[in-house]
Structure formats: structure tokens, C-alpha cells
């Protein structure tokens, strides 16, 4: 059997987190070095690898439900290699250090099991109930793999150079940054999107760190087999799970 498809071979890098092209990640496992990943994201594996649901303390699960920022995880352990992907999105590997990483759970693909994570809130400067965006704060030292819809832009923030970004396009940022949600509007009814510009809530970043912005303001649907989520995304005037700030993953 012959085909150009056989040119797409495995990247044999010895790195623990080794991207396989732009849309897939290979994680090399050894005994005692588990990885946790988005439930259902495994597409292949080699060796003696096992999968189990990841335990989350009741308080953490409760905060996730209240925030709508659900992070269903599976623990992967054993010895071998696992390949992860999600809807052919672009995959990026980040090293988490003292800065920490804040990310929308919808973009988390895999992370070292020893890292700590919890739900945090970004409050609106207007104090409007329900407007605050919830995200995940990941801390410790290790690797995190995130996904984006398209190739993202990594924006540098310094004390004398802050930036604003559409809340629906922001994927992640350094936890050390100060963040404020705001609506740049000259009209009185700030409850709705500004005029006919189509622009809504923005995040303002100040301090010293980085912001990752993707070239998309909509997450790919996760329930297209049934079509329910896709229809919800396209229905005018309504939000949908997995869209924009505070989006949650649906079951797969």
C-alpha cells in the first residue's frame, strides 16, 4: 500500500509534551509521572497506558458548577505514549512557572498531574451581576497544552504598555497580570452590545506578562453529532455553552 499519507509520521521527540504537527499532541509517560487531560481527547496511544476519571474535591466541583466553568478530566498513567487532539484545533505547549497561567477551561487539552488549578473570576467594573467571566488559574511548575481556533497572537504586556482584547477571543494570560472586564461604550444602556459595531465586553490587562488571543470569537461546537449545540450557537440573541467568556464543555 502506498500513499502520501504515510509521510505523516510520528515526531519522535523525547520531550514529555511533543506536538505532532499543528493539531495533535504526544505525551510521553513514565511510571509516577501522570498526566491529566480533557475527557475524551485521547485519539491513540502506545504502550501500557490506563485511563481513569480524575477525582476533584467536592468544594472544587461545587465552585465549577456555580461558575459554569466545568473541567471534566481523565487521569492517564502507566508507561508509553498518548496522542491527544480536539476537533483539529491548533495545539500549543506552555511552561507554567511563577507567573502562573489563567485560561478558559474550553481551551485546556492536557497538563502535568502535579499542577494545581482552581476557578477564578474576572469581575466587571460596572458591578453588573452575572457579567464576571470565570476562568481557571493553573499554578505550580510544569507543562500545559492548550488549543486555539487558528494560529494565536501572543501579546506582551509591560507596566508601561497595557492591552485590551475582546473577551470572546482571549484564550489565556499570565496570572500575574491585573485584569479588568469593561465595556467601552458611550451609550447609557451598557447591558447590550455597543451600537451596531458588534463589539461587546473587553478584558484590559496591566502589569508584566503575556496574553494569548486567537483569531476567532467562537468556539467550535462539541455536540455536532446531535446538532443541538450548533443550533444553539447560531440562534440569535442567546448564548450557548462553550461560547465566549465562562463557556463550559458539554458532554461528549
Your description of this structure?
There is one protein chain. This protein is mainly beta. It has one domain (14-234): Double-stranded beta-helix. Helix content is 7%, strand content 40%. It contains two helices and 17 strands. Strands 1, 2, 3, 4, 5, 6, 8 and 11 form an eight-stranded antiparallel sheet that branches. Strand 1 (17-19) and strand 2 (25-29) form a beta hairpin. The longest helix has 10 residues, at 58-67. It is globular, with a radius of gyration of 19 Å. The model is unreliable at 193-198 and 223-252 (pLDDT under 50).
Provide a short characterization of the protein structure.
The protein contains 2 helices and 17 strands.
* Global structural class: mainly beta
Main β sheet profile: 8 strands, antiparallel
Order of helices and strands: EEEEHEEEEEEEEEEEEEH
Can you identify the CATH class? Alpha Beta
CATH H-level superfamily:
Mitochondrial biogenesis AIM24
Q: Please state the overall shape, judged from the principal axes of the Cα atoms.
A: globular
Weakly predicted, low-confidence segments: 193-198, 223-252
* Beta strand %: 35-45%
Q: What is the tally of beta strands?
A: 17
**According to CATH, what is the topology?**
Double-stranded beta-helix
Give the integer mean of the pLDDT values: 77
Radius of gyration: 19 Å
Instruction: Report how far the terminal alpha carbons are from each other.
Output: 34 Å
Estimate percent helicity: under 10%
Count of spatially separate domains:
1
